[in-house]
Design a protein that fits this description.
Layout (H helix, E strand, L loop, with lengths): L1 H7 L3 H10 L5 H7 L9 H8 L13 H9 L2 H21 L3 H19 L4 H20 L3 H20 L11 H30 L13 E4 L9 E5 L2 E7 L8 E8 L2 E6 L6
Parallel strand pairs: 3-5
Antiparallel strand pairs: 1-2, 1-4, 2-3, 4-5
Length: 275
């Protein structure tokens, strides 16, 4: 390529950057640095300028897979899909449905596919994976900080991914789609984080529906005699539980559950009959 550049009087160093470092140039920059001989607004204008009118033409079009890969190989799109996918799965854990989980998994897969199509720096992918991990850590922590940290790390990974792909000899070129996706991330994700925190607080504030702790405060009957030094059995909510008490309780007497620890219910005689 360099020899061809020398033969035609093109910028050899720029051609070298294109071949060896995957550097791409806008048409205006390419014209300025001397690797193209002119600009045209359409293919027809190029054919006319080169004097190829009337000659046979062969058209090449991308198939659907190639079009999808072309779309996914945009670093901003890949970063956006990974981030949205992780948040969607996290939201679905609290909603208890499957639609968001499926959509989130597909979004993550497409995002990482796009990242692998780009000549990216490994640190970019590492940042994005760490960001996704922090987002899922929010399930356990629930204060929002892990969510915010995960979003920030994923966006930083996307920016590194973007900078690692040279669109010109000097600075990356962002088009309207890039700016729109970045603005969408900056607007929607903080709202999503606040919504997630609100959902978690709502879920955590609900009383338990299953498990031994649900019998606390409930009333039942003693199946056997129970005393301070004698464990027995009580029937609460149609189930039998090992129980103990600080007072003597006779078989058949009504009891109330005060606590449940280490597989044993602490009960007392019921102060009022159950309805």
């Amino acid at each position: 390529m360099e020899s061809l550049g020398e033969l035609h009087g093109w910028n050899q160093s720029a051609i070298y950057q294109m071949v060896e470092h995957n550097v791409a140039y806008t048409s205006q920059n390419a014209s300025k640095i001397g690797i193209i001989t002119g600009l045209s607004d359409s293919l027809a204008a190029v054919i006319q300028k080169l004097g190829y009118e009337g000659m046979p033409q062969t058209s090449f079009t991308e198939n659907y897979v190639q079009q999808l890969e072309s779309f996914l190989s945009n670093s901003t799109v890949a970063d956006f899909l990974i981030l949205i996918g992780a948040v969607a799965i996290l939201l679905d854990i609290y909603h208890g449905s499957i639609i968001l989980s499926v959509a989130g998994i597909v979004s993550l897969a497409l995002g990482f596919w796009g990242a692998t199509l780009i000549g990216f720096q490994p640190i970019a992918l590492l940042f994005m994976i760490m960001g996704v991990a922090l987002i899922f850590l929010e399930i356990k922590l629930g204060h929002g900080l892990a969510m915010i940290g995960g979003v920030v790390l994923t966006i930083v990974g996307g920016l590194i991914l973007m900078i690692g792909v040279s669109y010109s000899s000097n600075n990356p070129v962002l088009n309207g789609t890039n700016y729109a996706l970045i603005a969408l991330e900056a607007t929607v994700l903080p709202i999503g984080a606040l919504y997630l925190i609100a959902i978690r607080k709502s879920v955590m504030g609900k009383p338990l529906k299953v498990g031994p702790q649900t019998i606390i405060g409930k009333k039942g009957k003693a199946v056997t005699d129970i005393g301070p030094k004698q464990k027995g059995v009580v029937n609460v909510q149609s189930e039998e539980w090992t129980a103990t008490s600080s007072e003597d309780i006779k078989m058949g007497e009504e009891v109330e559950v005060l606590d449940y620890k280490e597989g044993v219910a602490m009960v007392r005689k019921s102060s009022s009959p159950s309805k």
